[in-house]
Amino acid sequence: MSAYVEDNVKPDYDEVITKIADYVLNTKIDSASAYETARLCLMDTLGCGMLALNFSECAKMLGPIVPGAILANGARVPGTAYELDPVQAAFNIGTMIRWLDFNDTWLAAEWGHPSDNLGAILAVADYVSRVQQQAGKPGLTMHDVLTAMVKAHEIQGCFALENSFNRVGLDHVILVKLASAALSAYLLGADRDGIMRVVSQVFVDGQSLRTYRHAPNAGSRKSWAAGDACARAVRLALISKSGEMGYPSALSRQYVTHP
Fold it and tell me: For 209-246, what is the HEC assignment?
């Protein structure tokens, strides 16, 4: 018989996970240049999404998963009449943004498009605002949206500096999911533990392969992959908001296969 015994005592959260949570919660953005850059990025990104609506291959991807399944006072999809749950709204907005491949690009060890995070940020911000306003409370402001943009850009961009996911066959939208999940949880009102839980969920989640970006399998999924990552990020944030547990050593724990 195997003498293998696994320690089932949960450790503290991995340092990377705690650093993300602490950054999202505690870092004050006091750069006027950062906010101005975020404002310009927001306008540019919305412009890319609006133009994409003119293309039928993009438009066919939008709307509810089940025809007619709208959510009254849900998250709105710019340029359309759709009001959707925030998960599907994030998919819609993220897909619009990326469809034409015109929005910003960050090139490092990994490449990517940090403005893709707006798919999740805009969907969650609008949903949260409308829920709060229905309850007689103030909604979020555009300053809140721009702050979330800056922090999502920083998370995605800094991870891309030293981590090349494409070299191991993974698509760079893993970083969209990571940044979007952390900021979606924050906009939904998560505390430090809640943000750590959702970040750990992202790391244990299945990640997209780059297959659809390369011959002979290059295809249109590359245009909605970021929307898919945004939707998954919001879904994980909502799951964590319900109190679902996290996985503290998601990055550091090494497992041994045993009989």
Answer: ECHHHCCCCCCCHHHHHHHHHHHHHHHHHHHHHCCCCC
Q: Is the peptide bond before 216 cis (omega within 30 degrees of 0)?
A: yes
Beta strands in 8-112 (DSSP E): 75-76, 83-84, 106-107, 111-112
What is the tens place of the pLDDT at every residue in 81-137? 999 999 999 999 999 999 999 988 888 999 899 999 999 999 999 999 999 999 999
pLDDT by residue (tens digit) across 207-228?
Answer: 999 999 999 999 999 999 999 9
Other beta carbons within 10 Å of 103: 21
Reply yes or no on whether the pLDDT at 259 is more than 70.
no
Nearest to 152 by CA among 123, 174, 178: 178
Q: Which of 211, 131, 199 is nearest to 166 (CA)?
A: 211
Length reported for the chain: 259
As given in the structure block, the two tokens for residue 208 are 């997209």
Does residue 167 have a pLDDT over 90?
Answer: yes
- List, in order of start, the domains of the chain with CATH numbers: 15-241 (1.10.4100.10)
Residues 6 or more apart in contact with residue 237 via CB below 8 angstroms? 124, 181, 184, 185, 188, 190, 198
Taking the whole predicted model, whether its pTM rises above 0.85 is answered as yes
Whose tokens are 């403005």? That residue is 115
